[in-house]
């Protein structure tokens, strides 16, 4: 009986953790460029003295759903939608380089190019991009940024920088606690993407399917309730066994 209780207990814990991942996805159903987190469980046999008769249900995170989200046309010159396996390099809070597919950008009053989350966008040299005062700005499909300076004519359009856009497969990235992606191998620099890497005037929406996520929440809740019932039933059976032993004595 203690084996069944152990499996049910660890299974209930894994179900709660999986619910956390699904609720995180639901909370980001409207976040531009968000990739749904994946969660699954696997059996892990506990090692130790005696027979390996205890099995632990362990939550595993196989990564994220890399499927592209819906395209949202905005017409904004600083909104970009990245091609498949293309990631925009930004500066994380600790100063390190991280990656996102959220292409909703703006220029701060100080001229710094930032994402909707306030993260500085990095240039191909790894430094944050500063935009001089301008009357017009254009982003090329290769990540180059060109402006027409204030008071100048169209013929004076000049390139002021190029965004660092890397080419990376889902296996090369992991999600951090801040929601940004990072390389699974910090020692290996991700390569700069060449050629057509983005579309301007559009954004990529979240790839979270809210209806599917809600169904998953209900399934996990029912699964958790069944596991709790197993624990209660085991406890009741143990109490009944103890009573029978006392009567027999």
UniProtKB/TrEMBL annotation:
InterPro entries attached to this UniProt entry: Flag_bb_rod_N, Flagellar_FlgE/F/G, Flg_bb/hook_C_dom, FlgE/F/G-like, LlgE_F_G-like_D1
Gene Ontology annotations of biological process type: bacterial-type flagellum-dependent swarming motility
All residue ranges annotated as the Flagellar basal-body/hook protein C-terminal domain in the record: 200-244
Family per record: Belongs to the flagella basal body rod proteins family.
Span list, region Disordered: 177-198
Compartments where found: Bacterial flagellum basal body
Predominant subcellular localization, coarse grouping: other
Keywords: Bacterial flagellum, Cell projection, Cilium, Flagellum
Alphabetized PANTHER family for the sequence: FLAGELLAR BASAL-BODY ROD PROTEIN FLGF, FLAGELLAR PROTEIN
Pfam family, one: Flg_bbr_C
Domain Flagellar basal body rod protein N-terminal, first and last residues per copy: 5-35
Gene Ontology terms: cellular component: bacterial-type flagellum basal body, rod
Origin: domain of life: Bacteria
Name of the featured protein: Flagellar basal-body rod protein FlgF
Assembly information from the UniProt record: The basal body constitutes a major portion of the flagellar organelle and consists of five rings (E,L,P,S, and M) mounted on a central rod. The rod consists of about 26 subunits of FlgG in the distal portion, and FlgB, FlgC and FlgF are thought to build up the proximal portion of the rod with about 6 subunits each.
UniProt domain Flagellar hook protein FlgE/F/G-like D1: residue ranges: 87-146
């Amino acid at each position: 009986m203690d084996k069944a209780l152990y499996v049910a207990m660890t299974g209930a814990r894994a179900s709660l953790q999986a619910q956390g991942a699904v609720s995180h996805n639901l909370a980001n159903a409207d976040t531009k460029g968000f990739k749904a987190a994946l969660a699954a469980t696997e059996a892990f046999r506990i090692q130790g003295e005696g027979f390996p008769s205890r099995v632990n249900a362990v939550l595993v995170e196989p990564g994220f759903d890399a499927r592209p989200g819906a395209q949202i046309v905005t017409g904004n010159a600083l909104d970009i939608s990245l091609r498949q396996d293309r990631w925009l390099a930004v500066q994380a809070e600790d100063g390190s380089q991280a990656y996102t597919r959220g292409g909703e950008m703006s220029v701060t009053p100080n001229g710094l190019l930032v994402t909707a989350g306030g993260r500085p966008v990095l240039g191909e040299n790894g430094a944050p991009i500063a935009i001089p005062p301008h009357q017009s700005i254009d982003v090329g499909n290769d990540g180059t940024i060109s402006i027409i300076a204030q008071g100048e004519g169209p013929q004076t359009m000049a390139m002021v920088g190029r965004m660092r856009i890397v080419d990376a497969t889902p296996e090369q990235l992991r999600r951090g606690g801040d929601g940004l992606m990072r390389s699974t191998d910090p020692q290996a620099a991700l390569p700069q993407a060449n050629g057509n890497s983005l579309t301007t005037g559009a954004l990529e929406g979240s790839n979270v399917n809210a209806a599917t996520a809600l169904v998953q929440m209900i399934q996990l809740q029912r699964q958790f309730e069944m596991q709790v019932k197993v624990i209660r039933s085991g406890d009741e059976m143990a109490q009944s066994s103890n009573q029978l032993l006392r009567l027999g004595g």
